[in-house]
Write a structure and sequence with these properties.
With 131 residues, the protein is mainly α. It contains 3 helices and 2 strands. The chain folds into 2 domains: 2-94, Orthogonal Bundle (Non-ribosomal Peptide Synthetase Peptidyl Carrier Protein, Chain A), CATH 1.10.1200; 100-131, no CATH class. The chain has helices at 2-12, 15-48, 57-94; strands at residues 106-108, 115-117. The protein has a two-stranded antiparallel ribbon with strand order 1-2.
Length: 131
């Protein structure tokens, strides 16, 4: 049983699962905010537009509802995109930049194959001239 709990903990603590859980919670919370904004501000503006002939409540009401839902979706998607982009940028800043390999300090003598300093002009082992 403890092995199963340990495996579940490792799975749940992986970066992707935690990020996804945070995204779902933030998305649900932000969805409520966008719904409130659409209900309070957008719907009254759309309802104030002139109605269609014959009362226009059927099609016009459906059109208003569709526009409100579409705007709600677009706002939610835009904000979630910006949140994910900010999180990814923060992760990139946290990563250490790759270090360039250090310049070599030694070279091989072409005659005796021993290691000599890079600035040496003569091998210390075989006394050959090295370029």
């Amino acid at each position: 049983m403890s092995k199963l709990l340990k495996e579940f903990k490792e799975f749940a603590m992986r970066g992707n699962v935690v990020d996804m859980a945070i995204g779902v919670v933030i998305g649900a919370a932000f969805g409520k905010v966008v719904t409130a904004v659409v209900d309070i501000f957008l719907t009254p503006i759309l309802e104030a537009l002139p109605k269609m002939e014959n009362g226009g409540t059927g099609f016009a009401g459906s059109l208003i509802t569709f526009c409100a839902v579409l705007v709600e979706f677009l706002l939610t998607a835009l904000v979630l995109f910006m949140i994910v982009k900010a999180i990814n940028k923060a992760k990139d800043l946290k990563k250490k930049p790759e270090e360039k390999p250090a310049a070599p300090t030694t070279k091989q003598c072409p005659y005796c194959l021993s290691e000599i300093p890079i600035k040496a002009t003569r091998c210390a082992h075989c006394t050959s001239e090295v370029k």
